Amino acid sequence: MAPTDDVWSVLERVERETGEITRQLRPLRWGLVPSWAKSLKTGAKMINARVETVAEKPAYRRAFAKRRCLLPADGFYEWQTVAATQTAKAHKQPYFISPEDSQVMALAGLYEFWRDPAVEDDAPGAWWTTCTIITTEATDAAGRVHPRMPLAIAPADWGAWLDPAHEDPGELRALLTAPAAGHLAARAVSTAVNDVRNNGPHLLTEPGDDTGDA
């Protein structure tokens, strides 16, 4: 998944007619667009929200209080810059970072609704639902590759995180944990990842073996 792609997310919404809270699985556009933004393009710069400021920044604080989601993931990519040598140009080497036990992670996210003023109310594209991933300083294997990493929610806390009635900032921040409790593995993968047009399991192959389809 690349920024501005649709990503599968789990969230809870209050039904207007009944007041009942329902849990939903729905695609959200990656890159949060605040309700007051003038353009959908704003989201390309807001794919991540720093945990240190997420509860105070105007772009995120309302979503942090009321519109939280979970993004299921097997892992995430980060990059290291490799210096040029006499025989090769400088390049960015991608790494796939995932739980050592191969379990799925539930990354902590926020979502927002944005109304496109250029589109009529009932027309497709009038409303967009967008999201961002909360990040923190990286540790362990992830920290050796990149200074930041996403935060996750432990299974026992999924309900509390998704509950739209749960609005205490301190209690919500206490639910944020390192993915896989910090037990992460990082391995170099194909540089085909560097082109967002590429997709498929072959992206997880070892460097230098970019042609096979796993």
From TrEMBL:
<dbReference type="GO" id="GO:0008233">
    <property type="term" value="F:peptidase activity"/>
</dbReference>
<keyword id="KW-0227">DNA damage</keyword>
<keyword id="KW-0645">Protease</keyword>
<dbReference type="InterPro" id="IPR036590">
    <property type="entry name" value="SRAP-like"/>
</dbReference>
<dbReference type="Pfam" id="PF02586">
    <property type="entry name" value="SRAP"/>
</dbReference>
<dbReference type="GO" id="GO:0006508">
    <property type="term" value="P:proteolysis"/>
</dbReference>
<keyword id="KW-0238">DNA-binding</keyword>
<dbReference type="InterPro" id="IPR003738">
    <property type="entry name" value="SRAP"/>
</dbReference>
<dbReference type="GO" id="GO:0003697">
    <property type="term" value="F:single-stranded DNA binding"/>
</dbReference>
<keyword id="KW-0190">Covalent protein-DNA linkage</keyword>
<keyword id="KW-0378">Hydrolase</keyword>
<comment type="similarity">
    <text>Belongs to the SOS response-associated peptidase family.</text>
</comment>
<dbReference type="GO" id="GO:0106300">
    <property type="term" value="P:protein-DNA covalent cross-linking repair"/>
</dbReference>
<dbReference type="GO" id="GO:0016829">
    <property type="term" value="F:lyase activity"/>
</dbReference>
<keyword id="KW-0456">Lyase</keyword>
<protein>
    <recommendedName>
        <fullName>Abasic site processing protein</fullName>
        <ecNumber>3.4.-.-</ecNumber>
    </recommendedName>
</protein>
